[in-house]
């Protein structure tokens, strides 16, 4: 905007310098060089001035085409016509110079007037299309034409019939009068445009457009003056005007530049007006009524009292002149009757003029009133049009109040809207109160009950409310707001849409004065139109709530088609979607446990998952829950604390009331105390029912922040939505539990199937090896029995016997695993006091041949008086399994360590440890090696045989004896593993 202003100022300076320099050149050339130099200079500067003015107008037109602002685009046609009109004058100057150069000036005279006549239609169109001015009716244009023709007729009459000017001595009357009349006709176009402008100034011009229109008016006036001088010289010279008078050419140059300059200033004014509207919209969005200014205050319509009725004076002068001329200069006795009739007709014509004068005044008053009403209606329509795109109710209320303050001059506004707009009015109806003021902070609250505000809305007609009379009937927040700004009264206008009351709009000024009729009419029209916008906002809000609720229901329903879903995950989803659907700040999901207790499973706070705060919410006994309602299987509203009692309490006073009114040992008190600490006054408890039984509970609640004036707590009207939601959620949660059970069963079947396959592979591999050895040795003995030495025969038989023993061990492990699976505990009679040192010595005796063969070093760190409670036979079997595995899965020559002692973590327990230096076991495999038939991949491909049941049997036996077995290993080759057995100390 600053760049445009600088450009306009520079253009004005250039125009001023051009005019001054041109006039100076014309004057100096006339005295120093001669007339021909003056004519040459004028013939160059006048078309050049027209070209510069046309260029400026073209620039304004081009800029307006690039702009997308509707306000800036309004003057596009006007600037285009000004540019074309000035271009026509430039063309006329160029044609004059060509004719002057070829010495054919006289023949160019008709062409000159024909080209000049095209200038006036373009300029007339430009004036009609000017932005920022009132519309001109066709009757006004006709009046201007009549006046123009009357003035031309007077001049024609004075020169032709009553010649007041004599022709030059060297010119005949027959040649002089046509040229003079032609100059008068040409001058009539200038007079018509000037009179048209006088109408515009009277009807109203926008403040920002005064300077551009004044420049345009000055340009027309200078052009009229120059045309008048040129016309006079045309009539009093042998040839037409030859550009030899400096002041005439200077007026032409100035008028052409000023006309083009006016287009630039018009565009600047329109751009500034568009920028002001944008800033006003931003101020409206930021709700700064003390800084917002009215569009009418900054760019209002200015009207000027001009004697427009004096336009009919030329008509009266024409008729009067005819009457005087008839009486004083024409005396024909034979025509006295005709003369008297002519005189009478002239008098009647003047009376008609007088009558028309008074009628015009009356019509002008009516037109002003009509235009004012139209202007007010148009202003209100534009203001409401700015609100049409706002769909959020709170934002819409803020803009409605700001418009009232910024546009209508009020200092305080109160907007009362019914929350249940589509339900009948009752004392339980909630009223949304929005206020705005230039002195105090805005207020937004939600009130209910039969207050004076409810009565104002329910009555449905205009009412002036004096606050002092009804001060005790005002809600606390509204009363404090009114007391801070000291408003004695407020005028309320009902907001009614199609016969249905939506609310009321109250306006007031701090200055003790009544609202004038004009402003009241505008406010009334404004209220009538915003009713439609508010209704649309209500419908949008209702549709959006339904959409959110439907979306939440769809999100829950889609989970029904899921193959597997965890109940915990679904419960969290139910909380999040429930908060979104019912606009709840808190949604807590309680699940029923077998012991008759409802425990919190999931929670959503402000629409977000918050598992960290789940433990803070107390559990509920079902018996206590059933005491809260007569229908425990249906949703109900829990009154935690009445709003009227708690709305003015601070946090400390709330805790004091809780401590005083409730017994500390009450479970019911624990839940309510938790809700009160979160400033929750009401909550909806919705049970999840399946097959007529309570399986869970959903709690919906909304808190009221400390110091807030708005209570969005739940009430009875929210129960149907909670009912719909919890029914769908109950089905989804029940299905999720069924899916989980089916999924668990399916996983178990898959695991069993995998273990069966693994057992078949393992059994076939492990059984085949000893069977092959037994079969091979028996076949050798059978084939070479006669030739084999006795010693070798005994060796073959011994090896076959070892294979059979290995088969026996494998089959015994399978039988033990099956028996352990059926018998989950060891008989108490088999449990006895066992010495750890003695049982480990028996194990060492059995593994000593293998230790000696592998050249291993065995270390023992076992206290002598250490006893445990166990089955000696089963404990020996477990220690043999672990020791045998340590020998098989560690390299020969590596040491073994047996240790035992009290558990450092559990005082009455003993830990027995076996450590090897084998390849170790990775952490991810340490729990899986205790499962049935599980062998590491590296073990299955190694020559070391095994059934995969040894560690499984060991785990089950130790657990049956009330102990625990686990492994410690880093999984690093050479780091080895340590197996720990934990048993009760004896």
What is Rg? Answer: 54 Å
Total DSSP helices: 27
Q: Distance N terminus to C terminus? A: 97 Å
Structural class: alpha+beta
Helix content: 55-70%
β-strand percent reads 5-15%
**Number of separate strands:** 22
In total, the number of domains comes to 5
Pfam families: GAF, HATPase_c, HisKA
Enzyme class: transferase
Transmembrane segments: 7-29, 35-56, 77-95, 107-130, 142-162, 182-201, 213-233, 245-265, 310-329, 341-358, 680-701
InterPro entries: GAF, GAF-like_dom_sf, HATPase_C_sf, HATPase_dom, His_kinase_dom, HisK_dim/P_dom, HisK_dim/P_sf, Sig_transdc_His_kin-like_C
Describe the structure.
- With 986 residues, the protein is of the alpha+beta class.
- The chain folds into 5 domains: 2-306; 307-375; 387-546, 2-Layer Sandwich (Beta-Lactamase), CATH 3.30.450; 549-743, GAF domain (Beta-Lactamase); 825-984, Heat Shock Protein 90, CATH 3.30.565.10.
- The protein is built from 27 helices and 22 strands.
- Strands 9, 10, 11, 12, 13, 14 and 15 form a 7-stranded antiparallel sheet that branches. Strands 5-4-3-8-7-6 form a 6-stranded antiparallel sheet. Strands 17-19-20-22-21 form a 5-stranded mixed sheet.
- The chain is elongated, with a radius of gyration of 54 Å.
- The two termini are 97 Å apart.
Short overview:
This protein has 986 residues and is of the alpha+beta class. The protein folds into five domains: 2-306; 307-375; 387-546, GAF domain (Beta-Lactamase, 2-Layer Sandwich), CATH 3.30.450.40; 549-743, GAF domain (Beta-Lactamase); 825-984, Histidine kinase-like ATPase, C-terminal domain (Heat Shock Protein 90).
């Amino acid at each position: 905007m600053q760049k445009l202003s600088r450009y306009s100022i520079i253009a004005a300076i250039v125009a001023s310098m051009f005019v001054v320099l041109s006039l100076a050149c014309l004057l100096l050339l006339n005295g120093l060089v001669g007339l021909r130099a003056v004519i040459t200079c004028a013939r160059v500067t006048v078309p050049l001035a027209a070209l510069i003015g046309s260029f400026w107008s073209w620039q304004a037109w081009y800029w307006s085409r690039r702009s997308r602002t509707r306000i800036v685009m309004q003057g596009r046609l006007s600037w285009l016509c000004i540019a074309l009109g000035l271009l026509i004058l430039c063309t006329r100057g160029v044609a004059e110079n060509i004719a002057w150069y070829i010495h054919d000036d006289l023949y160019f005279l008709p062409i000159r007037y024909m080209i000049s006549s095209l200038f006036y239609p373009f300029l007339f169109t430009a004036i009609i299309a000017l932005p920022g001015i009132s519309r001109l009716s066709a009757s006004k244009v006709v009046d201007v034409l009549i006046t123009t023709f009357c003035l031309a007729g007077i001049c024609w009459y004075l020169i032709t019939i009553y010649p007041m000017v004599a022709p030059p001595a060297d010119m005949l009357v027959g040649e002089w009068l046509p040229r003079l009349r032609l100059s008068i006709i040409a001058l009539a176009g200038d007079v018509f445009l000037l009179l048209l402008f006088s109408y515009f100034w009277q009807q109203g011009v926008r403040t920002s457009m005064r300077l551009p229109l004044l420049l345009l008016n000055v340009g027309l006036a200078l052009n009229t003056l120059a045309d008048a001088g040129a016309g006079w010289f045309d009539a009093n010279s042998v040839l037409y005007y030859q550009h030899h008078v400096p002041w005439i050419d200077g007026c032409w140059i100035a008028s052409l530049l000023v006309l083009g300059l006016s287009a630039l200033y018009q565009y600047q004014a329109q751009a500034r007006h568009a920028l002001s509207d944008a800033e006003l919209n931003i101020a409206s969005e930021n709700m700064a009524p003390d800084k917002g200014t009215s569009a009418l205050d900054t760019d209002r319509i200015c009207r000027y009292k001009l004697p427009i009725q004096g336009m009919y004076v030329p008509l009266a002068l024409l008729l009067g002149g005819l009457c005087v001329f008839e009486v004083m200069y024409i005396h024909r006795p034979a025509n006295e009757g005709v003369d008297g009739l002519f005189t009478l007709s002239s008098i009647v014509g003047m009376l008609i003029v007088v009558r028309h004068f008074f009628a015009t005044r009356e019509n002008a008053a009516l037109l002003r009133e009509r235009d004012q009403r139209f202007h007010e209606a148009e202003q209100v329509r534009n203001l409401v049009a700015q609100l049409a795109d706002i769909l959020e109710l709170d934002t819409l209320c803020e803009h409605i109040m700001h418009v009232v303050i910024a546009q209508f001059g009020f200092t305080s506004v109160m907007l009362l809207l019914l929350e249940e707009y589509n339900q009948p009015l009752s004392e339980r109806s909630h009223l949304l109160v929005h206020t705005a003021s230039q002195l105090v902070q805005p207020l937004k609250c939600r009130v209910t009950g039969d207050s004076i505000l409810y009565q104002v809305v329910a009555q449905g007609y205009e009412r002036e409310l004096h606050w002092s009379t009804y001060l005790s009937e005002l809600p606390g927040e509204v009363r404090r707001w009114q007391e801070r700004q000291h408003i004695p009264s407020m005028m309320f206008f009902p907001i009614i849409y199609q016969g249905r009351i939506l609310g009321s709009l109250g306006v007031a000024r701090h200055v003790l004065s009544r609202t004038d009729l004009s402003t009241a009419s505008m406010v009334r029209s404004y209220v009538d139109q915003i009713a439609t916008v508010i209704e649309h906002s209500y419908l949008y809000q209702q549709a959006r709530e339904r959409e959110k609720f439907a979306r939440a229901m769809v999100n829950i329903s889609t989970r029904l088609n899921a193959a597997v879903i965890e109940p915990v995950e679904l419960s969290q989803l139910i909380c999040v979607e429930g908060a979104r659907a019912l606009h709840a700040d808190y949604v807590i999901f309680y699940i029923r446990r077998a012991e008759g207790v409802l425990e919190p499973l999931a929670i959503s706070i402000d629409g977000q998952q918050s598992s960290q705060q789940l433990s803070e919410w107390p559990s509920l006994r079902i018996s206590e829950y059933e005491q809260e309602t007569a229908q425990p299987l249906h949703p109900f509203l829990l009154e935690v604390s009445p709003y009227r009692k708690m709305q003015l309490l601070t946090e400390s006073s709330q805790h004091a009331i809780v401590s005083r009114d409730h017994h500390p040992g009450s479970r019911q008190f624990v839940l309510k105390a938790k809700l009160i600490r979160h400033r929750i006054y009401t909550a909806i408890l919705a049970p999840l029912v399946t097959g007529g039984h309570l399986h869970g509970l959903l709690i919906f609640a909304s808190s009221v922040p400390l110091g807030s004036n708005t209570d969005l707590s739940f009430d009875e009207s929210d129960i149907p939505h909670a009912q719909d939601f919890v029914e769908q959620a109950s089905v989804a949660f029940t299905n999720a539990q069924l899916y989980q059970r089916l999924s668990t069963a399916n996983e178990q079947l898959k695991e069993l199937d995998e273990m069966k396959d693994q057992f078949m592979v393992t059994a076939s591999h492990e059984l085949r090896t000893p069977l092959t050895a037994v079969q091979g040795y028996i076949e050798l003995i059978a084939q070479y029995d006669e030739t084999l030495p006795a010693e070798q025969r005994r060796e073959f038989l011994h090896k076959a016997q070892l294979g059979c023993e290995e088969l026996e061990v494998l089959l015994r492990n399978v039988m033990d695993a099956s028996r352990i699976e059926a018998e989950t505990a060891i008989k108490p009679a088999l449990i006895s006091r066992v010495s750890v040192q003695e049982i480990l010595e028996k194990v060492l005796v059995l593994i000593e041949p293998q230790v000696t063969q592998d050249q291993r070093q065995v270390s023992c760190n076992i206290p002598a008086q250490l006893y445990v409670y166990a089955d000696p036979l089963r404990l020996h079997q477990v220690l043999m399994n672990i020791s045998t595995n340590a020998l098989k899965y560690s390299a020969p020559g590596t040491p073994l360590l047996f240790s035992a002692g009290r558990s450092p973590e559990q005082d009455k327990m003993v830990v027995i440890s076996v450590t090897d230096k084998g390849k170790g076991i990775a952490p991810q495999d340490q729990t899986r090696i205790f499962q049935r038939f599980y062998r590491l991949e590296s073990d299955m491909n190694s020559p070391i045989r095994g059934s995969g049941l040894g560690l499984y049997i060991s785990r089950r036996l130790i657990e049956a004896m009330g102990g625990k077995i686990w492994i410690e290993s880093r999984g690093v080759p050479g780091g080895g593993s340590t197996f720990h057995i934990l048993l009760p100390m004896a």
